Amino acid sequence: MSRNKGITKKKKRSSATRKEEMTAYLCLIPAFLGLTFISYLPTLAAFILSFFDWNGMTAPKFAGISNYIQIFTHDMSFWPSLKATLVYAFITVIGSLLYSLVIAMLLNMKVPARTFWRAVFFIPYMLPAIGVFTAWKWLYEVNYGLFNFILRSMGCSPMQFLDSPRQVLPSLALIAVWCSGNLIVIFLAGLQNVPRVYHEAAQIDGASYWQRFRYITLPSISPIIFYNLLMALITNLQVVTPALAITDGGPQNASMFLSYLIYEYAFERYKLGYSAAYAAIFFVLVGIFTVVLFRSSKSWLFYEEDGE
Amino acid sequence: MGESKTLNTNQAGKLSNKKVNEKIGSGVATAVLAITAVLVLLPLYWIFRSSLMSNGTLYAYPPSILPKEWLWGNYATTLETFDYWLYFKNTFTLIVPCVTAGTITAIFCGYAFARLRFRGKKIIFTLCVGTILLPGMVTLIPLYLFWTRICHLGGTYWPLILPYFTGGGFFNIYLVRQFITTIPKELDEAAEIDGASRMRTLWTIIVPAIRPAITVVILMLFIQLWNDLLQQLIYINDMTKTTFAIGLTNFTGSFGTKWNYAMAATCMTIAPGLVIYIIGQKSFVEGIVLTGMKN
Fold it and tell me: Can you give the pTM of this predicted structure?
Protein backbone atom coordinates (compact mmCIF):
# COMPACT_ATOMS: atom_id res chain seq x y z
CA MET A 1 0.00 0.00 0.00
CA SER A 2 2.70 2.37 0.98
CA ARG A 3 4.43 1.54 -2.28
CA ASN A 4 1.26 2.38 -4.17
CA LYS A 5 1.03 5.64 -2.43
CA GLY A 6 4.59 6.35 -3.40
CA ILE A 7 3.84 5.70 -7.04
CA THR A 8 0.80 7.96 -7.20
CA LYS A 9 2.74 10.64 -5.43
CA LYS A 10 5.52 10.34 -7.96
CA LYS A 11 3.06 10.52 -10.83
CA LYS A 12 1.42 13.53 -9.36
CA ARG A 13 4.73 15.25 -8.86
CA SER A 14 5.81 14.58 -12.41
CA SER A 15 2.62 16.05 -13.79
CA ALA A 16 3.19 19.06 -11.58
CA THR A 17 6.75 19.21 -12.85
CA ARG A 18 5.50 19.05 -16.39
CA LYS A 19 3.08 21.85 -15.69
CA GLU A 20 5.88 23.89 -14.19
CA GLU A 21 7.99 23.27 -17.27
CA MET A 22 5.17 24.33 -19.56
CA THR A 23 4.72 27.55 -17.59
CA ALA A 24 8.44 28.20 -17.78
CA TYR A 25 8.60 27.70 -21.52
CA LEU A 26 5.55 29.90 -22.01
CA CYS A 27 7.11 32.64 -19.89
CA LEU A 28 10.31 32.32 -21.86
CA ILE A 29 8.75 32.67 -25.30
CA PRO A 30 9.99 36.28 -25.54
CA ALA A 31 13.51 35.14 -24.66
CA PHE A 32 13.40 32.31 -27.21
CA LEU A 33 12.22 34.72 -29.90
CA GLY A 34 14.92 37.17 -28.96
CA LEU A 35 17.66 34.55 -28.91
CA THR A 36 16.63 33.21 -32.28
CA PHE A 37 15.55 36.21 -34.30
CA ILE A 38 17.33 39.13 -32.68
CA SER A 39 20.62 37.57 -31.62
CA TYR A 40 21.92 34.30 -32.96
CA LEU A 41 20.32 33.92 -36.39
CA PRO A 42 21.27 37.47 -37.44
CA THR A 43 24.82 36.89 -36.22
CA LEU A 44 25.01 33.74 -38.28
CA ALA A 45 23.47 35.61 -41.20
CA ALA A 46 26.11 38.33 -40.90
CA PHE A 47 28.86 35.73 -41.14
CA ILE A 48 27.24 34.10 -44.18
CA LEU A 49 26.65 37.45 -45.84
CA SER A 50 30.29 38.36 -45.36
CA PHE A 51 31.22 35.76 -48.00
CA PHE A 52 29.05 37.43 -50.61
CA ASP A 53 29.25 40.41 -52.86
CA TRP A 54 25.94 42.21 -52.72
CA ASN A 55 24.66 45.72 -53.34
CA GLY A 56 21.17 44.92 -52.08
CA MET A 57 19.61 45.17 -55.56
CA THR A 58 20.96 42.49 -57.87
CA ALA A 59 21.40 38.87 -56.86
CA PRO A 60 24.16 38.31 -54.28
CA LYS A 61 27.32 36.78 -55.73
CA PHE A 62 29.42 34.31 -53.76
CA ALA A 63 32.81 35.87 -53.22
CA GLY A 64 34.65 33.50 -50.91
CA ILE A 65 36.97 35.28 -48.56
CA SER A 66 37.68 38.11 -50.99
CA ASN A 67 35.92 40.65 -48.77
CA TYR A 68 38.27 39.79 -45.93
CA ILE A 69 41.32 39.89 -48.14
CA GLN A 70 40.23 43.27 -49.43
CA ILE A 71 39.76 44.62 -45.90
CA PHE A 72 43.07 43.35 -44.53
CA THR A 73 45.26 44.19 -47.49
CA HIS A 74 43.75 46.96 -49.62
CA ASP A 75 41.26 48.84 -47.47
CA MET A 76 42.86 52.11 -46.45
CA SER A 77 40.35 52.72 -43.69
CA PHE A 78 40.56 49.41 -41.82
CA TRP A 79 43.73 49.80 -39.75
CA PRO A 80 43.22 53.48 -38.90
CA SER A 81 39.66 52.72 -37.93
CA LEU A 82 40.71 49.79 -35.75
CA LYS A 83 43.22 52.05 -34.06
CA ALA A 84 40.68 54.85 -33.57
CA THR A 85 38.21 52.42 -32.03
CA LEU A 86 40.75 50.93 -29.65
CA VAL A 87 42.21 54.29 -28.64
CA TYR A 88 38.78 55.76 -28.00
CA ALA A 89 37.60 52.71 -26.06
CA PHE A 90 40.79 52.64 -24.00
CA ILE A 91 40.69 56.33 -23.01
CA THR A 92 36.97 56.24 -22.33
CA VAL A 93 37.00 53.06 -20.26
CA ILE A 94 39.95 54.14 -18.12
CA GLY A 95 38.67 57.70 -17.81
CA SER A 96 35.11 56.88 -16.90
CA LEU A 97 36.10 54.13 -14.46
CA LEU A 98 38.55 56.38 -12.64
CA TYR A 99 36.18 59.33 -12.62
CA SER A 100 33.22 57.34 -11.39
CA LEU A 101 35.22 55.44 -8.77
CA VAL A 102 36.69 58.64 -7.31
CA ILE A 103 33.31 60.38 -7.23
CA ALA A 104 31.69 57.29 -5.72
CA MET A 105 34.35 57.13 -3.00
CA LEU A 106 33.83 60.79 -2.18
CA LEU A 107 30.09 60.22 -2.04
CA ASN A 108 30.71 57.29 0.28
CA MET A 109 32.36 59.56 2.86
CA LYS A 110 30.42 61.46 5.46
CA VAL A 111 29.30 64.32 3.23
CA PRO A 112 26.21 66.45 3.70
CA ALA A 113 23.39 66.23 1.12
CA ARG A 114 24.75 63.03 -0.39
CA THR A 115 21.57 62.19 -2.32
CA PHE A 116 21.63 65.65 -3.87
CA TRP A 117 25.19 65.24 -5.17
CA ARG A 118 24.42 61.75 -6.35
CA ALA A 119 21.48 63.08 -8.32
CA VAL A 120 23.60 65.81 -9.90
CA PHE A 121 26.28 63.43 -11.16
CA PHE A 122 23.62 61.18 -12.63
CA ILE A 123 22.02 63.94 -14.74
CA PRO A 124 24.28 63.73 -17.82
CA TYR A 125 23.46 60.03 -18.12
CA MET A 126 19.79 60.95 -18.51
CA LEU A 127 20.30 63.22 -21.50
CA PRO A 128 19.60 62.04 -25.05
CA ALA A 129 22.85 61.36 -26.92
CA ILE A 130 22.02 63.65 -29.79
CA GLY A 131 21.37 66.53 -27.41
CA VAL A 132 24.62 65.86 -25.59
CA PHE A 133 26.69 65.84 -28.75
CA THR A 134 25.08 68.94 -30.21
CA ALA A 135 25.68 70.76 -26.95
CA TRP A 136 29.31 69.69 -26.70
CA LYS A 137 29.98 70.58 -30.29
CA TRP A 138 29.16 74.14 -29.33
CA LEU A 139 31.27 73.95 -26.17
CA TYR A 140 34.20 72.69 -28.25
CA GLU A 141 33.75 75.39 -30.90
CA VAL A 142 37.25 76.65 -31.67
CA ASN A 143 36.69 80.42 -31.70
CA TYR A 144 33.67 81.04 -29.50
CA GLY A 145 33.26 77.85 -27.49
CA LEU A 146 33.31 77.69 -23.72
CA PHE A 147 36.41 75.55 -23.40
CA ASN A 148 38.66 77.73 -25.47
CA PHE A 149 37.36 80.73 -23.56
CA ILE A 150 38.40 79.04 -20.31
CA LEU A 151 41.76 78.04 -21.77
CA ARG A 152 42.41 81.56 -23.03
CA SER A 153 41.44 83.18 -19.75
CA MET A 154 43.87 80.85 -17.98
CA GLY A 155 46.58 81.96 -20.36
CA CYS A 156 46.77 78.71 -22.31
CA SER A 157 46.68 78.59 -26.07
CA PRO A 158 43.34 77.47 -27.51
CA MET A 159 42.91 73.91 -28.74
CA GLN A 160 41.35 72.52 -31.89
CA PHE A 161 39.28 69.81 -30.16
CA LEU A 162 36.93 68.22 -32.70
CA ASP A 163 38.70 69.90 -35.61
CA SER A 164 42.02 68.24 -34.94
CA PRO A 165 42.70 64.62 -35.87
CA ARG A 166 44.88 64.31 -32.79
CA GLN A 167 42.45 65.83 -30.31
CA VAL A 168 39.16 64.51 -31.56
CA LEU A 169 39.30 61.13 -29.77
CA PRO A 170 40.20 62.50 -26.31
CA SER A 171 37.57 65.20 -26.81
CA LEU A 172 34.90 62.62 -27.59
CA ALA A 173 36.10 60.47 -24.69
CA LEU A 174 35.62 63.38 -22.31
CA ILE A 175 31.97 63.57 -23.35
CA ALA A 176 31.57 59.87 -22.60
CA VAL A 177 33.23 60.29 -19.20
CA TRP A 178 30.87 63.16 -18.44
CA CYS A 179 27.95 60.83 -19.19
CA SER A 180 29.09 57.96 -16.95
CA GLY A 181 26.82 58.73 -14.00
CA ASN A 182 25.44 55.21 -14.03
CA LEU A 183 28.87 53.81 -13.17
CA ILE A 184 29.05 56.16 -10.17
CA VAL A 185 25.80 54.82 -8.81
CA ILE A 186 26.83 51.19 -9.30
CA PHE A 187 30.24 51.81 -7.65
CA LEU A 188 28.54 53.61 -4.79
CA ALA A 189 26.24 50.66 -4.21
CA GLY A 190 29.29 48.40 -4.09
CA LEU A 191 31.18 50.66 -1.71
CA GLN A 192 28.25 50.85 0.67
CA ASN A 193 28.30 47.08 0.76
CA VAL A 194 31.86 46.93 2.15
CA PRO A 195 31.44 46.12 5.85
CA ARG A 196 32.47 49.08 7.96
CA VAL A 197 34.08 46.81 10.57
CA TYR A 198 36.86 45.96 8.13
CA HIS A 199 37.84 49.60 7.89
CA GLU A 200 37.49 50.16 11.61
CA ALA A 201 39.62 47.14 12.41
CA ALA A 202 42.29 48.25 9.96
CA GLN A 203 42.21 51.75 11.34
CA ILE A 204 42.85 50.45 14.86
CA ASP A 205 45.78 48.50 13.48
CA GLY A 206 47.11 51.76 12.13
CA ALA A 207 46.55 51.21 8.43
CA SER A 208 46.85 54.35 6.34
CA TYR A 209 44.10 55.55 4.05
CA TRP A 210 45.96 54.22 1.02
CA GLN A 211 46.52 50.82 2.65
CA ARG A 212 42.86 50.54 3.53
CA PHE A 213 41.94 51.44 -0.04
CA ARG A 214 44.42 48.98 -1.51
CA TYR A 215 43.76 46.01 0.76
CA ILE A 216 40.12 46.42 1.80
CA THR A 217 38.16 48.60 -0.59
CA LEU A 218 39.65 47.42 -3.87
CA PRO A 219 39.33 43.66 -3.22
CA SER A 220 35.83 44.08 -1.81
CA ILE A 221 34.53 45.89 -4.85
CA SER A 222 36.57 43.95 -7.41
CA PRO A 223 33.48 42.12 -8.75
CA ILE A 224 31.81 45.50 -9.32
CA ILE A 225 34.94 46.86 -10.97
CA PHE A 226 34.98 43.85 -13.24
CA TYR A 227 31.32 44.30 -14.12
CA ASN A 228 31.73 48.00 -14.86
CA LEU A 229 34.93 47.37 -16.81
CA LEU A 230 33.33 44.67 -18.96
CA MET A 231 30.20 46.69 -19.66
CA ALA A 232 32.11 49.90 -20.36
CA LEU A 233 34.48 48.07 -22.69
CA ILE A 234 31.73 46.40 -24.70
CA THR A 235 29.75 49.64 -24.92
CA ASN A 236 32.68 51.78 -25.94
CA LEU A 237 34.14 49.39 -28.49
CA GLN A 238 30.78 49.74 -30.21
CA VAL A 239 31.03 53.50 -30.31
CA VAL A 240 29.14 54.97 -33.25
CA THR A 241 26.86 57.78 -32.08
CA PRO A 242 29.47 60.58 -31.86
CA ALA A 243 30.51 59.90 -35.44
CA LEU A 244 26.89 59.81 -36.59
CA ALA A 245 25.93 62.89 -34.63
CA ILE A 246 28.80 65.31 -35.01
CA THR A 247 32.06 64.20 -36.59
CA ASP A 248 30.99 62.08 -39.60
CA GLY A 249 34.16 60.11 -38.98
CA GLY A 250 36.40 63.12 -39.37
CA PRO A 251 38.52 65.14 -39.25
CA GLN A 252 40.72 63.23 -41.71
CA ASN A 253 38.97 59.98 -40.74
CA ALA A 254 40.34 60.27 -37.20
CA SER A 255 37.02 59.26 -35.67
CA MET A 256 36.10 56.71 -38.35
CA PHE A 257 35.16 54.01 -35.82
CA LEU A 258 34.68 50.40 -36.93
CA SER A 259 30.96 50.60 -36.14
CA TYR A 260 30.66 53.73 -38.19
CA LEU A 261 32.38 52.01 -41.13
CA ILE A 262 29.92 49.12 -40.85
CA TYR A 263 27.10 51.66 -41.02
CA GLU A 264 28.64 53.59 -43.85
CA TYR A 265 29.45 50.63 -46.08
CA ALA A 266 25.97 49.19 -45.61
CA PHE A 267 23.73 52.23 -45.70
CA GLU A 268 25.62 54.79 -47.71
CA ARG A 269 27.71 52.76 -50.13
CA TYR A 270 25.38 49.73 -50.33
CA LYS A 271 28.18 47.20 -50.04
CA LEU A 272 26.28 44.83 -47.80
CA GLY A 273 28.59 41.82 -48.01
CA TYR A 274 31.63 43.97 -47.42
CA SER A 275 29.99 45.65 -44.46
CA ALA A 276 29.05 42.24 -43.06
CA ALA A 277 32.70 41.20 -43.28
CA TYR A 278 33.54 44.25 -41.20
CA ALA A 279 30.83 43.23 -38.74
CA ALA A 280 32.28 39.73 -38.50
CA ILE A 281 35.76 41.08 -37.82
CA PHE A 282 34.27 43.39 -35.23
CA PHE A 283 32.50 40.45 -33.59
CA VAL A 284 35.78 38.57 -33.28
CA LEU A 285 37.50 41.66 -31.89
CA VAL A 286 34.91 42.15 -29.13
CA GLY A 287 35.05 38.41 -28.45
CA ILE A 288 38.82 38.50 -27.98
CA PHE A 289 38.58 41.39 -25.53
CA THR A 290 35.83 39.68 -23.56
CA VAL A 291 37.75 36.42 -23.30
CA VAL A 292 40.97 38.19 -22.29
CA LEU A 293 39.10 40.16 -19.65
CA PHE A 294 37.43 37.06 -18.22
CA ARG A 295 40.73 35.14 -18.19
CA SER A 296 42.62 37.94 -16.50
CA SER A 297 39.84 38.49 -13.99
CA LYS A 298 40.62 35.16 -12.32
CA SER A 299 43.84 36.58 -10.98
CA TRP A 300 42.45 39.81 -9.54
CA LEU A 301 38.80 39.13 -8.89
CA PHE A 302 38.09 38.54 -5.23
CA TYR A 303 34.94 36.87 -3.99
CA GLU A 304 34.17 36.54 -0.33
CA GLU A 305 34.19 32.95 0.90
CA ASP A 306 30.55 32.97 1.89
CA GLY A 307 29.53 34.92 -1.18
CA GLU A 308 27.52 33.57 -4.07
CA MET B 1 49.68 66.74 39.54
CA GLY B 2 50.42 66.79 35.85
CA GLU B 3 50.88 63.17 34.95
CA SER B 4 47.32 61.87 34.92
CA LYS B 5 46.05 65.11 33.52
CA THR B 6 48.47 65.25 30.63
CA LEU B 7 47.64 61.66 29.89
CA ASN B 8 43.99 62.55 29.82
CA THR B 9 44.45 65.55 27.60
CA ASN B 10 46.67 63.46 25.40
CA GLN B 11 43.98 60.88 25.00
CA ALA B 12 41.36 63.52 24.48
CA GLY B 13 43.65 65.18 22.00
CA LYS B 14 44.07 61.94 20.11
CA LEU B 15 40.34 61.37 19.98
CA SER B 16 39.49 64.87 18.92
CA ASN B 17 42.35 64.68 16.45
CA LYS B 18 40.67 61.73 14.85
CA LYS B 19 37.40 63.60 14.83
CA VAL B 20 39.02 66.69 13.43
CA ASN B 21 40.66 64.57 10.75
CA GLU B 22 37.33 63.07 9.87
CA LYS B 23 35.76 66.49 9.71
CA ILE B 24 38.55 67.80 7.51
CA GLY B 25 38.19 64.74 5.30
CA SER B 26 34.49 65.24 4.95
CA GLY B 27 34.99 68.95 4.32
CA VAL B 28 37.55 68.31 1.60
CA ALA B 29 35.33 65.64 0.07
CA THR B 30 32.37 68.01 0.02
CA ALA B 31 34.45 70.75 -1.54
CA VAL B 32 35.79 68.44 -4.26
CA LEU B 33 32.28 67.15 -4.92
CA ALA B 34 30.89 70.66 -5.13
CA ILE B 35 33.58 71.79 -7.56
CA THR B 36 33.14 68.70 -9.72
CA ALA B 37 29.38 69.13 -9.63
CA VAL B 38 29.73 72.69 -10.87
CA LEU B 39 32.00 71.47 -13.68
CA VAL B 40 29.51 68.73 -14.55
CA LEU B 41 26.62 71.18 -14.66
CA LEU B 42 28.55 73.94 -16.43
CA PRO B 43 27.93 72.57 -19.96
CA LEU B 44 24.22 72.43 -19.24
CA TYR B 45 24.15 75.98 -17.98
CA TRP B 46 26.21 77.12 -20.95
CA ILE B 47 23.87 75.72 -23.58
CA PHE B 48 20.87 77.17 -21.76
CA ARG B 49 22.55 80.55 -21.59
CA SER B 50 23.51 80.34 -25.26
CA SER B 51 19.95 79.52 -26.25
CA LEU B 52 18.81 82.88 -24.88
CA MET B 53 21.33 85.09 -26.65
CA SER B 54 21.49 86.71 -30.02
CA ASN B 55 24.00 85.31 -32.46
CA GLY B 56 25.95 88.57 -32.28
CA THR B 57 26.43 88.50 -28.50
CA LEU B 58 27.20 84.79 -28.74
CA TYR B 59 30.29 85.58 -30.79
CA ALA B 60 31.41 88.50 -28.62
CA TYR B 61 34.68 88.25 -26.73
CA PRO B 62 34.94 87.85 -23.82
CA PRO B 63 31.68 85.89 -23.64
CA SER B 64 29.27 87.02 -20.99
CA ILE B 65 28.43 84.54 -18.26
CA LEU B 66 24.85 85.77 -18.08
CA PRO B 67 22.94 86.77 -21.22
CA LYS B 68 22.47 90.55 -21.29
CA GLU B 69 18.90 90.20 -22.43
CA TRP B 70 16.93 87.00 -22.14
CA LEU B 71 15.71 86.39 -25.66
CA TRP B 72 12.94 83.87 -25.04
CA GLY B 73 11.88 84.69 -28.59
CA ASN B 74 14.70 82.42 -29.77
CA TYR B 75 12.54 79.49 -28.77
CA ALA B 76 9.60 80.78 -30.81
CA THR B 77 11.88 81.26 -33.82
CA THR B 78 13.35 77.80 -33.38
CA LEU B 79 9.89 76.26 -33.20
CA GLU B 80 9.08 77.65 -36.62
CA THR B 81 11.38 75.09 -38.24
CA PHE B 82 12.00 72.67 -35.37
CA ASP B 83 8.72 70.76 -35.27
CA TYR B 84 8.98 70.09 -31.53
CA TRP B 85 5.56 68.69 -30.74
CA LEU B 86 5.60 66.37 -33.72
CA TYR B 87 8.97 64.98 -32.59
CA PHE B 88 7.69 64.80 -29.04
CA LYS B 89 4.61 62.84 -30.08
CA ASN B 90 6.61 60.55 -32.37
CA THR B 91 9.36 59.90 -29.84
CA PHE B 92 6.90 58.88 -27.17
CA THR B 93 4.79 56.86 -29.61
CA LEU B 94 7.98 54.89 -30.07
CA ILE B 95 9.20 54.82 -26.48
CA VAL B 96 5.99 53.97 -24.62
CA PRO B 97 5.24 50.65 -26.37
CA CYS B 98 8.91 49.67 -26.30
CA VAL B 99 9.28 50.28 -22.58
CA THR B 100 5.97 48.60 -21.77
CA ALA B 101 6.70 45.53 -23.88
CA GLY B 102 10.27 45.29 -22.64
CA THR B 103 9.30 45.54 -18.99
CA ILE B 104 6.46 43.00 -19.12
CA THR B 105 8.41 40.41 -21.09
CA ALA B 106 11.45 40.92 -18.85
CA ILE B 107 9.28 40.16 -15.82
CA PHE B 108 8.00 36.92 -17.36
CA CYS B 109 11.45 35.73 -18.38
CA GLY B 110 13.10 36.81 -15.16
CA TYR B 111 10.44 34.99 -13.19
CA ALA B 112 10.96 31.77 -15.15
CA PHE B 113 14.72 31.87 -14.55
CA ALA B 114 14.35 32.72 -10.88
CA ARG B 115 11.53 30.46 -9.73
CA LEU B 116 10.71 27.68 -12.16
CA ARG B 117 12.50 24.41 -12.74
CA PHE B 118 12.67 23.19 -16.30
CA ARG B 119 14.90 21.21 -18.58
CA GLY B 120 17.58 23.12 -20.46
CA LYS B 121 17.59 26.00 -17.97
CA LYS B 122 21.36 26.20 -17.81
CA ILE B 123 21.85 26.16 -21.57
CA ILE B 124 19.16 28.72 -22.21
CA PHE B 125 20.54 30.94 -19.48
CA THR B 126 24.07 30.72 -20.89
CA LEU B 127 22.81 31.51 -24.38
CA CYS B 128 21.06 34.56 -22.96
CA VAL B 129 24.20 35.74 -21.15
CA GLY B 130 26.01 35.45 -24.47
CA THR B 131 23.69 38.02 -26.01
CA ILE B 132 24.98 40.70 -23.61
CA LEU B 133 28.42 40.25 -25.10
CA LEU B 134 27.08 40.23 -28.63
CA PRO B 135 27.68 43.61 -30.25
CA GLY B 136 24.56 45.12 -31.77
CA MET B 137 26.54 46.29 -34.78
CA VAL B 138 27.02 42.70 -35.90
CA THR B 139 23.32 42.04 -36.28
CA LEU B 140 22.58 45.45 -37.79
CA ILE B 141 22.51 44.50 -41.48
CA PRO B 142 20.80 41.09 -41.21
CA LEU B 143 18.13 42.60 -38.98
CA TYR B 144 17.65 45.48 -41.36
CA LEU B 145 17.21 43.05 -44.25
CA PHE B 146 14.90 40.91 -42.12
CA TRP B 147 12.59 43.78 -41.18
CA THR B 148 12.53 45.53 -44.54
CA ARG B 149 12.86 42.70 -47.08
CA ILE B 150 11.21 39.75 -45.36
CA CYS B 151 8.65 41.44 -43.09
CA HIS B 152 8.16 44.53 -45.29
CA LEU B 153 8.05 46.78 -42.27
CA GLY B 154 10.39 49.46 -43.62
CA GLY B 155 9.20 52.99 -42.94
CA THR B 156 7.19 51.96 -39.87
CA TYR B 157 8.13 51.96 -36.19
CA TRP B 158 7.72 48.18 -35.95
CA PRO B 159 11.40 47.29 -36.58
CA LEU B 160 12.22 49.56 -33.65
CA ILE B 161 9.42 48.31 -31.37
CA LEU B 162 9.23 44.56 -31.99
CA PRO B 163 12.72 43.73 -30.63
CA TYR B 164 11.54 45.05 -27.27
CA PHE B 165 9.01 42.24 -27.05
CA THR B 166 11.92 39.92 -26.27
CA GLY B 167 12.64 41.13 -22.75
CA GLY B 168 14.34 44.28 -23.94
CA GLY B 169 17.80 42.77 -23.73
CA PHE B 170 19.03 40.13 -21.32
CA PHE B 171 20.37 42.67 -18.87
CA ASN B 172 16.83 43.54 -17.83
CA ILE B 173 15.77 39.91 -17.55
CA TYR B 174 18.82 39.26 -15.39
CA LEU B 175 18.02 42.19 -13.14
CA VAL B 176 14.49 40.93 -12.56
CA ARG B 177 15.77 37.40 -11.94
CA GLN B 178 18.35 38.55 -9.40
CA PHE B 179 15.78 40.55 -7.54
CA ILE B 180 13.21 37.76 -7.46
CA THR B 181 15.74 35.30 -6.03
CA THR B 182 16.14 37.56 -3.01
CA ILE B 183 12.44 37.34 -2.17
CA PRO B 184 11.66 34.50 0.26
CA LYS B 185 10.11 31.57 -1.57
CA GLU B 186 7.67 31.06 1.29
CA LEU B 187 5.83 34.13 0.04
CA ASP B 188 4.73 32.58 -3.24
CA GLU B 189 4.33 29.13 -1.69
CA ALA B 190 1.85 30.58 0.77
CA ALA B 191 -0.10 32.13 -2.07
CA GLU B 192 -0.05 28.86 -3.98
CA ILE B 193 -1.39 26.97 -0.97
CA ASP B 194 -4.22 29.49 -0.91
CA GLY B 195 -4.99 28.32 -4.43
CA ALA B 196 -3.50 31.14 -6.45
CA SER B 197 -2.12 30.16 -9.85
CA ARG B 198 1.52 30.84 -10.71
CA MET B 199 0.64 33.80 -12.89
CA ARG B 200 -1.51 35.25 -10.16
CA THR B 201 1.29 34.87 -7.67
CA LEU B 202 3.66 36.54 -10.07
CA TRP B 203 1.52 39.60 -10.63
CA THR B 204 0.02 40.02 -7.15
CA ILE B 205 2.89 38.93 -4.89
CA ILE B 206 6.19 39.08 -6.75
CA VAL B 207 5.78 42.11 -8.98
CA PRO B 208 4.88 44.46 -6.09
CA ALA B 209 7.83 43.09 -4.14
CA ILE B 210 10.36 43.80 -6.89
CA ARG B 211 9.20 47.31 -7.64
CA PRO B 212 12.71 48.85 -7.36
CA ALA B 213 14.00 46.44 -10.00
CA ILE B 214 11.09 47.24 -12.27
CA THR B 215 11.76 50.95 -11.91
CA VAL B 216 15.34 50.37 -13.00
CA VAL B 217 14.27 48.24 -15.95
CA ILE B 218 11.89 50.96 -17.08
CA LEU B 219 14.61 53.57 -16.68
CA MET B 220 17.20 51.49 -18.55
CA LEU B 221 14.85 50.87 -21.45
CA PHE B 222 13.91 54.52 -21.56
CA ILE B 223 17.53 55.65 -21.63
CA GLN B 224 18.43 53.08 -24.27
CA LEU B 225 15.74 54.44 -26.58
CA TRP B 226 16.34 58.02 -25.59
CA ASN B 227 20.01 57.63 -26.52
CA ASP B 228 19.53 55.77 -29.73
CA LEU B 229 20.34 57.49 -32.97
CA LEU B 230 21.61 54.72 -35.23
CA GLN B 231 18.52 52.49 -35.29
CA GLN B 232 16.17 55.43 -35.77
CA LEU B 233 18.39 56.81 -38.52
CA ILE B 234 18.19 53.52 -40.36
CA TYR B 235 14.51 52.77 -40.06
CA ILE B 236 12.86 56.20 -40.08
CA ASN B 237 12.92 57.91 -43.44
CA ASP B 238 9.54 59.57 -43.39
CA MET B 239 9.41 63.24 -42.34
CA THR B 240 6.12 62.73 -40.52
CA LYS B 241 7.68 59.99 -38.39
CA THR B 242 10.73 62.00 -37.34
CA THR B 243 11.78 61.65 -33.71
CA PHE B 244 13.87 63.96 -31.54
CA ALA B 245 17.08 62.19 -32.47
CA ILE B 246 16.53 62.66 -36.21
CA GLY B 247 14.85 66.04 -35.87
CA LEU B 248 17.72 67.57 -33.94
CA THR B 249 20.32 66.07 -36.27
CA ASN B 250 18.59 67.59 -39.28
CA PHE B 251 17.99 70.89 -37.53
CA THR B 252 21.59 71.43 -36.49
CA GLY B 253 22.67 70.23 -39.92
CA SER B 254 20.78 73.04 -41.60
CA PHE B 255 21.35 75.67 -38.90
CA GLY B 256 24.98 74.81 -38.26
CA THR B 257 26.15 78.35 -37.62
CA LYS B 258 23.14 79.73 -35.76
CA TRP B 259 24.19 78.32 -32.45
CA ASN B 260 21.57 80.10 -30.41
CA TYR B 261 18.77 78.33 -32.28
CA ALA B 262 20.65 75.04 -32.26
CA MET B 263 21.04 75.36 -28.48
CA ALA B 264 17.38 76.27 -28.03
CA ALA B 265 16.45 73.11 -29.93
CA THR B 266 18.93 71.13 -27.84
CA CYS B 267 17.49 72.47 -24.58
CA MET B 268 13.98 71.57 -25.68
CA THR B 269 15.11 68.08 -26.66
CA ILE B 270 16.83 67.53 -23.34
CA ALA B 271 13.91 68.87 -21.32
CA PRO B 272 11.50 65.88 -21.26
CA GLY B 273 14.18 63.52 -19.95
CA LEU B 274 15.26 66.03 -17.33
CA VAL B 275 11.69 66.53 -16.15
CA ILE B 276 11.12 62.77 -15.90
CA TYR B 277 14.41 62.44 -14.03
CA ILE B 278 13.66 65.22 -11.57
CA ILE B 279 10.25 63.71 -10.82
CA GLY B 280 11.47 60.14 -10.47
CA GLN B 281 15.04 60.88 -9.38
CA LYS B 282 14.82 59.32 -5.96
CA SER B 283 13.30 56.02 -6.95
CA PHE B 284 15.54 55.76 -10.03
CA VAL B 285 18.80 56.19 -8.22
CA GLU B 286 17.71 54.22 -5.18
CA GLY B 287 16.49 51.45 -7.46
CA ILE B 288 19.90 51.25 -9.09
CA VAL B 289 21.61 51.25 -5.71
CA LEU B 290 19.34 48.47 -4.49
CA THR B 291 19.65 46.35 -7.62
CA GLY B 292 23.37 47.04 -7.71
CA MET B 293 23.69 45.47 -4.30
CA LYS B 294 21.92 42.32 -5.42
CA ASN B 295 24.56 41.61 -8.00
Answer: 0.88
